């Protein structure tokens, strides 16, 4: 999987960040979300992404959040070309053998368009709310590693028997197999330096972690160090970034919007940590990450359910890199 071209994906509105709250009625929210996902395909994005969350942020607000895998399955039937990703699936929410079955089915029904995103999970409120145990970070990451090993085996082997510290499966069958050969790409999200990035170095085709330039470069170097430990060529891993994005036609318009941060960050702080500005400013910042080795951008549009940013990114920014 070396020689990664630069990938341009985008999140669809799903409700997790309260972006559908101004629309009345669950059906109307769903149709708007689907309209925007289909528009992303028309605009030429490489991939459309969903979160794997069930409670809103920054706090649960009894506002619609559409579930990850049912949304992806629906997307597979409403789109025809665009790839379908999860940034990222919460490993704890599904048994890994069942997850192998879900992902394989999605790859088949989508015509081989799955990008499988997986992470260790972090949103404790959801775990407690839905009755899941919330293990220590070390255990959650150990479970992540075993889950990826089980899913990969079930995708590619006639049957899988696995005895791990956290999971056991016996003669697990997964038919049909995914359409993609040798298998769907594996995206592992998270930037934990001593544990998560070790799993990325061992098992991922794509990484996804955040941070301003210096922080991002530091995590890149940590990941490359883990690759050396496992004897893996770091160029085999496409490093990606998923900031929030907002694009306006002029600096005055950008300033007038202020901060769109859900967590109350100042406009200056929010802008520093994300892709916020004119098309020229956004492209310049992206180039800085590309110069560090970034090979993919999967942003979330902070002005949803409006589509100004979605459209400007596709028509005024992405063409500069293709």
CATH superfamily: Luciferase-like domain
CATH class: Alpha Beta
Provide the CATH topology: TIM Barrel
In total, the number of domains comes to 1
What are the SSEs and their pairings?
Blueprint: E1 7-11, H1 26-42, E2 47-50, H2 68-78, E3 83-86, E4 89-90, H3 96-109, E5 114-119, H4 124-130, H5 137-156, E6 160-163, E7 168-172, E8 186-189, H6 196-203, E9 206-208, H7 213-230, E10 238-241, E11 244-247, H8 251-257, H9 267-273, E12 275-277, H10 279-291, E13 294-297, E14 300-301, H11 308-317
Parallel strand pairs: 1-2, 1-13, 2-3, 3-5, 4-5, 5-8, 8-9, 9-10, 10-13, 11-12, 11-14
Antiparallel strand pairs: 6-7
Helix pairs in contact: 3-5, 6-7, 10-11
Could you characterize the architecture of this molecule?
By secondary structure, the chain is of the alpha/beta class. It has one domain (7-321): Luciferase-like domain (TIM Barrel). It is 41% helix and 17% strand. The protein contains eleven helices and 14 strands. It has helices at 26-42, 68-78, 96-109, 124-130, 137-156, 196-203, 213-230, 251-257, 267-273, 279-291, 308-317; strands at residues 7-11, 47-50, 83-86, 89-90, 114-119, 160-163, 168-172, 186-189, 206-208, 238-241, 244-247, 275-277, 294-297, 300-301. The strands form three sheets. Strands 1-2-3-5-8-9-10-13 form an eight-stranded parallel barrel, surrounded by six helices. Strand 1 (7-11), helix 1 and strand 2 form a beta-alpha-beta unit. Helix 6 packs across helix 7 (213-230). The longest helix has 20 residues, at 137-156. The radius of gyration is 19 Å and the shape is globular. The two termini are 19 Å apart.
